[in-house]
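re: ur question from earlier - yeah i can do the single chain one, its not a big deal. heres the input i used so u can compare w yours
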Amino acid sequence: MAVLEKTQMLSDGKDKTIYNTTDPDIYLMEFKNSVTTNDGEKRDEITGKGHVNNEISSLLFERINGIDIKTHFIKKISDTEQLIKKLYIIPIEVVVRNYIAGSLVRRLGLDEGTPLYEPILEFYYKDDELGDPMINTDHIRILDIISQETEGEIKEIAFMVNETLNQIFSRIGITLVDVKLEFGLDIKGNIILADEITPDTCRLWDIETGKKLDKDIYRRNMGDMMLGYREVLSRLKSIRT
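and the output i got, formated as tokens:
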């Protein structure tokens, strides 16, 4: 691959910035040190966060690429940057849950940490002004976001990714409580796994102690968030092949 240079900024999000590059089919994604919660009400800059999340997401996407699931990830090119494929991002967040946690505690009245008999999947409509509301299949039809066939394929891929991540994390003594995934479409209409997979987008607990190793540390003011993130990265590096 020829050396690429980033050009104009395409989007500037809470945690990442996306740039065009000198290749029209490739974007550059830069991870920030910023961390937010409650729709941006709480915000901080944490040194090293962008570096660690870039490392974690790169390692996980490399593994997922290896099981024949199409992803946007091309390669990591610096401590905080990676090259990704140009996609149309589907405005839906897909959350796969393996245990009761987060909003599921409030909605179902069950205790945090209760295991689910089988993973469940939820859709959320990506719209900051609406607060990213949870939606169902009928809402997707009304909003004309994706076809029923595409929705079914996304569900199938999401459960495959969840199973793969469960296998990876269980090897390093971590419970995957839940994971938020995003998908896009390439120019041929292929469904592509996109965005990131990091402790920002997963709930991760130590299997033996139940200690949180994810963004809930920050949400709940439980101490140094980066200790958890670095622990996840260290364990992932121990099984890299």
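The mean pLDDT is 95. not sure if urs matches, ping me
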